[in-house]
Amino acid sequence: MIKVVAEHIVEESRVDEFLEAGKKMVAASVKDPGNVYYTMNKSLDVPNKYTILECWENNDVLQAHMNTPHFKELCPLMGTMLAEDAKLSIYEELY
Question: Selecting from 3.40.50.620, 3.40.50.12780, 3.30.70.100, 3.30.470.10, what CATH number does the domain 2-47+58-92 have?
Answer without folding.
Answer: 3.30.70.100
